[in-house]
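Two proteins, back to back. First:
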Amino acid sequence: MDPGWPAVFSERMRRFEAHRVPRPGTAAVSIKVRVRSGCFHREHSPEAYRLIDQHLGKLRRDTDLAFEEHESGPELLVYLAVVTAGLTLAKSVVDLVTAIIKARSEGIKRGDHPSEPLELIVRRTHNEQEVREEIVLKIGHNEHVDRKAIGHRLNSALRNLLKK
């Protein structure tokens, strides 16, 4: 990992937080869908991104998230509601993450070439030099994607991440 990466990530999170008014009891987090090798971006996965764009177009405009494109895969910057009973990741966010993973599989079926497995990761800044992350799951392009399982694993990983 690039030694300057934590500062770049911290700046990205600061920009996200600066353009939104956080509600009390929320924490800004990143949800990243990435490939460990190869690429997962528009140039190499146009079919997947067509499907992702369709899903993004259906989201309400007031949804409190930012969609970032990176060569290694898409990233969602979101506010997570941290309440006394636990934490809550919006259903629309879980649906979008599931749609991204499914779009990757469908894109490969339609001719997208990179087919390396994906990692679903949650992360947040701890301070300027430290990024904390939890790997939620690793999934191949031909594995079954279950929305409820993804939501459960995301929420569990986010709880662990916020405890640290």
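And the second protein:
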Amino acid sequence: MNVFTLLERATKRLQLQDSLYHEQCEVVLGILRSAGVLPYKRSSLNGELHKLVAAMLVNAYESDTSIDVGTRKAGIFHHYGYSTKIISYLDKMVGVGLLLSQRDTAKGKLVLSGLVEDYLGAVELTLA
């Protein structure tokens, strides 16, 4: 699914009171911070962006789909109202193996790694 579609859906879902969804987002957020993808510094300023990135991954998991990055142009991300830092976060996820790609960068079809899927599945079982 297109990265912008996933980001839009994540934005809407984060506004709902869905405890399972928010717990899954927090787990993914912890994974991303532990792996060094998202910085701890300035998290009070960028926390909303970081949670949006985590929510995007949760939406991809729930939809059982890939994250399709058709462009890496910062201007396009800005045009749609999303931070240009998302590109670098996706690159870091590919670099540490949380997203699987055919390339060394976040371009094309990105698939969630088994680790991320396992953690999200465990949260579902715990809260179900």
